[in-house]
Amino acid sequence: MTPCGFPNPCLNAAAHRGSSFGDPVKKPCEHTENVKIIALNQKKTPLPFVPLDAVIARAPGFARHDLSISQIATAGYVLALQLNEFCRPELAYSSFPRAWFEHYTAMDFLLVDPVLEWAAANSGAARWSEIAGPSTSPQSLRVLDHAATYNLRYGVILSTKNQMIGLKRSFLSCARPDREFTDSEIRELDVLFHDTLSLRSLTSDLTPACREVMNMLAIGMTQIDIALHLGISRDSVKKRIERACKTLGARNASHALAMAVEGSIVSAYG
Question: E strands within 122-167?
């Protein structure tokens, strides 16, 4: 996560050098991005992760990417696509250990996660050890220390804004238990990350008819209300909701609505 986990206790000389993939590592300093961090911190909730099948359903071809990423990120990875103004993604998947996710949430590490903060304020790639430098707070270093106990010892974060989708930010955070990621591995992950972004535009997944019904559910209308308003049968409304659930990889209508609202696909304010 960079909710459900982020990490690395490996604070050696790499912590003081610039990234090998561009300018020296920048500390979060963009005011607008920090506003997003504050909004996310106030929620104090983890990312709404979905099963791998749901990611594949919405981004055909991701199964191959998952295999390739997992071969490099042997301790797992977190993928968060298209964060909205509240720093909530339209799609998030994690293969980090569930035990780490539970510990991370229980400890409120989301509030001080240095990797998440870096991802929200920067574009590019950086090893976790490059982010944790002399100015990193003890609270943030604690996140990294705890992550190491779950075999999340070395990692890299990749973050970007997708120009084709309203400059929404996405990130990929990968971990290994044994050593730092090499430059070539980071380049390969960067290609896989950007290929994943281009697989599909998530906001266009819902058809106009499904989006219309989900918008009405979001403002409190019942299925009968929607049917009367649109001049269609209740069965037609139910079928549109079912299609929305399948598209979003949701368990049921309530789950689909929550995902759509959190991802700014529909609005709870009409």
Answer: 124-127, 154-162
